[in-house]
Design a protein that fits this description.
By secondary structure, this protein is of the alpha+beta class. The chain has a single domain, classed as 2-Layer Sandwich (HIT family, subunit A), CATH 3.30.428.10. Helix content is about 25%, strand content about 20%. It contains 3 helices and 5 strands; from the N terminus they run H-E-E-E-H-E-H-E. It has helices at about 5-10, 60-75, 90, and strands spanning about 20, 25-30, 35-45, 85, 100-105. A 5-stranded antiparallel sheet has the order 1-2-3-5-4, covered by helices on one side. Bound molecules: adenosine monophosphate and zinc ion (ZN). Zinc ion binds next to helix 1.
Length: about 110
């Protein structure tokens, strides 16, 4: 957990381009954007992945959805729409072991799998 890059971003040990912050949630721009707008929304609490979510996290994870809605309005992409992705584990392609919601916007997103 100490080596977790997103925990370091939460603590300010690694810089990030923040777009939203409150006591429980942080959002910042992805360093390798896959779309014109690519924001990562994370709980400040270290949760390694969806596999590690606990019942006590339900309110926090629910809240993140309203945070995403707020960000979409503030950043001006709510009307055009956006996509939210969570990768989990090896087959899901998760590279950073700290739960994060990818928010992609700013273009017609292709390659729909579902
Ligand atoms: P995932 O593959 O779902 O684990 O996504 C990890 C994401 O974190 C990738 O899109 C990376 O580009 C992004 N990322 C890794 N390190 C940083 C960082 N220091 N600041 C911002 N985004 C990062
Ligand atoms: Zn972490």
């Amino acid at each position: 957990m100490n080596d977790c890059v997103f925990c370091k971003i939460v603590k300010g040990e690694i810089p990030s381009q923040k777009v939203y912050e409150d006591e429980e949630v942080l959002a910042f721009h992805d360093i390798q954007p896959a779309a014109p707008i690519h924001i990562l929304v994370i709980p400040k609490k270290h949760i390694a992945s969806l596999n590690e979510v606990e019942k006590d996290d339900q309110a926090l994870l629910g809240k993140i959805h309203t945070v995403i809605q707020t960000i979409a309005k503030e950043q001006g992409f709510s009307d055009n729409g956006f996509r939210v992705i969570i990768n989990c584990g090896k087959d899901g392609g998760q590279e950073v072991a700290h739960l994060h919601f990818h928010v992609l916007a700013g273009m017609q997103l292709g390659e729909k799998i579902v």
